[in-house]
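Example record used in the benchmark description.
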Amino acid sequence: MTEISTLDNNITIVTNPNYNVETTAIGIWLKNGVRSENTNEHGYAHFLEHLVFKQTKYHTGQQLSSRFEIMGGHINAETGRELTAFHGLVPKHYTIDLLKLFIEMLFHSDFTKNDFNIERDVVLQELAMLNDDPEEALEDFATEQVWSNHPMGRQILGSRESLHHAQHNNLVKYLTNVTGNNRLSIVVTGNVNHDEVCQVVNMLTQTTQTAVPETLAPEFITTCKHLDIPAEQHHLLWVMPAVAYNDDKQPAYELANHILAGGYDSRLYQVLREQLGLVYSIDSRVDHYSDTGLWFIQTNTEKENSDKTTSAVEKTIVDFIKNGPTESEMEFARQHLQSSLIVAQDDLEARMDKMARDIFYTGNIINTEDLLEKLSTVSIDDVQNLLKQGWAKVSHFTAG
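Model output (structure tokens):
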């Protein structure tokens, strides 16, 4: 049974105990991402994710690494457009130890100027690696174009210019500003005791509450552009607007996405690979945020087949819009997504991730039963209409 507590220090604790397992998945989630950055702070959220692992007032970076290694689990961090997470999967007896280390990293960080300079070089290398991954580079480029002039469209890693202008004291101040307790949620799944987690977190003092910069939802810009980067193949990407995380239409997007290009039986996979042999794979996904979303459809092919592939993708989508999905496609996709939801309940990390996003984006935990019910009520017209609306604003990008 899920337990939720908002402590006196204004930190939210969410636990979902399962005493039949020997592990716990724990995440400290921070309402901070590229959307929260001021113009002169571009890339700070991601840079900070690196810096807090360097050292604290009580442990060197090497000591932190050793402690994580001893726990034997999977410990990592990630920065997104609206959220940053520090998370890990560890044996149950390390749950409180890992929680305390994460808290120490965020509230007692002590990275030096040398740490700052070294890690900035690391992030610059990470930024340079983008050109070696055409799919990721094209997706980042496309996001910048469709959400131009909005923080959500910025490159999460920052830019070479913004990173070169960053200063050690700026990141120290930024860390203090973004770790207000009102921005923090701690989510733990697995073999965990809710009261023990609350007891540890209650020791944190009340911080000065910091407001997350308010921005209007980004306006989607329809465009068609090419990214000139070295690549053996021609990379193709279509981007459409989507809805927010808590929008009632979200289940219809998941169904439409799966029918169109979400699996081996999807329309685009069957046409492009099985019938025409133009591509090895085609991928599609929908990202949902607090007040907006994006739908990506991406593939790659030999350069001489680029026009033929583009035509096949667009013809397939237009046919989908005109005639809609069949009853059998709807039922197949519905069963697949419902089965995936049930299976995900046994994945502690996936469950922790979902619950954290539920809390941030809805203020509550969305029950799996409710999601299953919502999927069952989506109609053919729902799927057909939302794709029609999205395709009317589609942006097309190429690279290579």
